[in-house]
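[Q] Does anyone have a clean structure-token version of this?
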Amino acid sequence: MGLGVDWGFTASPVRGWLQPSSDAIRENPPPVKPLLGISLKVISAVVFTMMSATLKTLAARYPVGEIVFFRSAFALLPLLIWLKWQGDLINAVRTKNVVGHFKRGFIGTSAMYLGFSALSYLPLHDAIAIGYASPLIAVILAALLLKETVRAYRWTAVGIGFVGVLIMLSPYLNVGTFAGGLNAGPTLGAMLAFAGAFCSAGAMIQVRRLTETEKTGAIVFYFFIMASGLSLCTLALGWRMPDAQDLALFILIGILGGIGQILVTQSYRYADTSVIAPFEYTTMIWALLFGWFLFGDLPTFTVLTGAAIVAATGLFIVWREHRLGLLRTKELQAMPQRPGV
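[A] Here you go.
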């Protein structure tokens, strides 16, 4: 999933969060426009990658807490404009689960801190590639915490996916890089990126729980509020006053993050998850381009191989779940209706 929704780079196709609820669909079914949905998803991937590239230019000069604050606070601006345009701002942010939002906010903000810190040490494409581990970890957490049924095919795909993750991490985890301890920058960056992917997966699980009672607008709104508040607490640790150019970049990061969230949310309204989700992996294409043009970074064959394995297993899981969904639908349609029903 790229760098993970709560890293602030991209968003994951969490059913019920980025898609409207089934009740909402029945009451106001959106038009099926797969080409529009795919286009919005790809554009959102470009926007999020632009945001992360801009963020990387600031990561070496400013504290992570300061970056998280601007990323979250200014993302509220396009989000609130969008919710107001939808016509029901107040109801969109009503909540019945403050504690759940706090849990999601804390886990998600931790993921963002870890992910942004990783960018200080890793090339853009490597950080994004390692973040692809997040949906694999989410499958494990869903089985453990949500008691979801995970069949042999998915467990096999997850296992193969983690082989890909180990391949991606291998250049950073050999004896030579560990010789420097935590001062070995790339090694520390890889550890931070993987820890961020784990926290992002935990945030996905909490989002699934929130979708039982909460609307999309409320989930995103309160996450940005929580992330802004928690990061503001780091002001006492020392922030750096940005100059006019860096301040403009900070604001741009937040606005791009908010716009990207809106685009990816809308993309899932026009097509099924199985159609949209595979285009999440286009983030690697944009990361390669931005990393090359802006930072002169080129990926190693090892990282590309591992990323390809992880992406392939992710695509397989999406395809498999789509097939199972079709089978379940056919079974329900084939069931005889009881008289009077």
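[Q] Thanks! Anything notable?
[A] Confidence is low (pLDDT under 50) at residues 1-5, 7-28.
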